[in-house]
Amino acid sequence: MSAERGSDVSGVLRMDGQLAVTNAGQAPITVRAATGQGPGAQVRDAGESELLGPGDTGLIGVELRFECETAFESGHLPMRFSVWPRAWCSS
Predict the structure, then answer these.
(1) Cα→Cα distances 18→2, 3, 44, 62, 88, Å
(2) In whole angstroms, how far apart are CA 44 and each of 24, 41, 86?
(3) What is the DSSP string of 39-54?
(4) For residues 40 and 55, what is the distance between their CA atoms, to the nearest angstrom?
(5) CA 20, CA 2: separation in Å to the nearest integer?
(6) Residues 42, 36: contact at Cβ < 8 Å?
(7) Which residue(s) pair with 85 in the sheet?
(8) Pairing relation of β-strands 41-45 and 57-67?
(9) Residue 42 phi, psi dihedral angles, 5° rounding
(10) Beta carbons of 2 and 18 less than 8 angstroms apart
(11) How far is residue 49's CA from residue 53's CA, in Å, rounded to a whole number?
(12) Are 1 and 16 in contact (CB under 8 A)?
């Protein structure tokens, strides 16, 4: 994770970070969006796209928000991704 950004709201921690995403499919894709939410925790992409070939792993920028007064458990945070199929182009 990168350095925390803090927050203007009492009891809320905001941080910038990176999320590793792996393309387990057989075709290249562009990761367009990523979001996740659970009790007291939210994750959303930072607006960057990442082109991943089959089997590739890349890092996408994310913004994390934790509400300190809401109890959140460590473990899995459901995530949703938006991906576009992408053909490789040679240039």
Answers:
(1) 8, 11, 10, 6, 25
(2) 21, 10, 22
(3) TTEEEEE-S--EEE-T
(4) 32
(5) 14
(6) yes
(7) 29
(8) antiparallel
(9) -135, 145
(10) yes
(11) 13
(12) yes
What does each of the 91 residues of the chain score in pLDDT, given as a tens digit?
333 455 566 788 899 999 999 999 999 999 989 999 988 889 999 998 889 999 999 999 999 998 888 766 667 788 898 888 875 554 4
Sign of CA dihedral 91, 50, 48, 16: negative
CA gap 37, 41 in Å, rounded: 6
Residue 50: name the closest of 89, 91, 79, 84 by CA.
84
HSE, CB side, 13 Å, CA atoms: give it for residue 81: 17
Query: Can you give the pTM of this predicted structure?
Result: 0.71
